[in-house]
Design brief:
The complex is a heterodimer.
Chain A lengths: L1 H21 L3 H25 L3 H4 L7 H5 L1 H31 L13
Chain B lengths: L5 H23 L3 H21 L3 H25 L13 H21 L11 H8 L1 H9 L4 H22 L6
Helix pairs in contact in B: 1-2, 2-3
Classes of the chains: A mainly alpha, B mainly alpha.
């Protein structure tokens, strides 16, 4: 079951990576980044559910199991928060850019190269 | 079979196929608006997968934040830009990107299958089973005790993001 979730996560991550590298529209790139964030969350939840928590693996880690069982899910919550902040700022940048430069294709945005 | 009954198994695979298929359509469709709608389908599929592996709170947050908030933001941004119908063309490096994606997927799949994971037994030991009975309660307790500093920082981050986004999209009449 862990392997199956991790494979799903890996497939999603690679789809996202392909999208980030190959799309020309900036919003498509942002959507691909969101797919990659979600792939990471699937992996975190899978590890949290199906692997042995640290408190049982290492004798000195303490006895309160629930603190370690849900570590993955807690991290996933913060990943979602950061992804939400990132997408809000990214789309605001895109809208400002579309107003100022009148383009949303990344190949047209090479001012720094010249 | 990983679930107790055949029905859960079928639902899980259906969710997996829908999630991966719609994610593939997001990077494939020409119309950026349809790609955004497919992205929402993919997010909802992931919420279903979360619900099936004892992450009920995350499933609800996924529907609210991704299926609601981020979807609305993306569609708004799509409506404020042009070239919506045909804008999602590929760049010149598309074949290279495809090869890199497949190579990374092969490497990841190989290492996932080869690794020896420290798996929990099928019948969960008592203390762990009680945690998974009520994950939202335990998660809330953790967020406000062990991870309270990160929780506060996340709040400040969201505030900064909102202020930053507002100042970026504000119309400047004086300029």
């Amino acid at each position: 079951m862990l392997e199956r979730l991790l494979i799903i996560s890996a497939v999603l991550f690679c789809i996202g990576l392909y999208g980030v590298l190959s799309r020309r529209h900036i919003i498509a790139v942002i959507m691909s980044v969101e797919i990659m964030f979600n792939a990471v969350n699937v992996a975190l939840v899978a590890f949290s559910r199906y692997t042995v928590p640290a408190s049982l693996r290492f004798p000195g880690a303490g006895t309160d199991v629930e603190r370690f069982v849900l570590e993955g899910q807690t991290l996933a919550v913060f990943v979602i928060v950061v992804a939400a902040a990132e997408v809000a700022l990214g789309l605001a940048l895109i809208i400002a850019l579309a107003r100022r430069r009148d383009t949303i294709h990344i190949s047209d945005l090479s001012t720094l190269r010249r | 079979m990983a679930f107790d009954n055949l029905f859960s198994e079928i639902v899980f695979w259906a969710l997996a196929v829908v999630t991966i298929g719609s994610a593939a359509l997001v990077v494939h469709l020409r119309s950026i608006f349809r790609a955004a709608l497919m992205l929402v389908v993919s997010f909802l599929g992931i919420a279903g997968i979360f619900a099936m592996v004892n992450a009920e709170f995350l499933a609800v947050v996924q529907v609210l934040v991704y299926g609601g908030g981020i979807a609305v933001l993306v569609i708004f941004a799509v409506m404020m830009t042009r070239d919506v119908d045909t804008g999602n063309r590929s760049t010149a490096v598309q074949p290279v990107a495809l090869m890199m994606g497949i190579a990374l997927l092969g490497a990841l799949a190989y290492s996932i299958v080869q690794a020896e994971w420290a798996l929990l037994p099928d019948s969960l030991p008592g203390p762990i089973a009680t945690v998974f009975v009520e994950t939202p309660t335990q998660l809330g307790r953790l967020l406000l005790s062990d991870y309270v500093l990160a929780f506060e920082v996340a709040g400040v981050l969201l505030l900064a993001a909102v202020i930053g986004a507002l100042s970026l999209v504000r119309e400047r009449h004086d300029a």
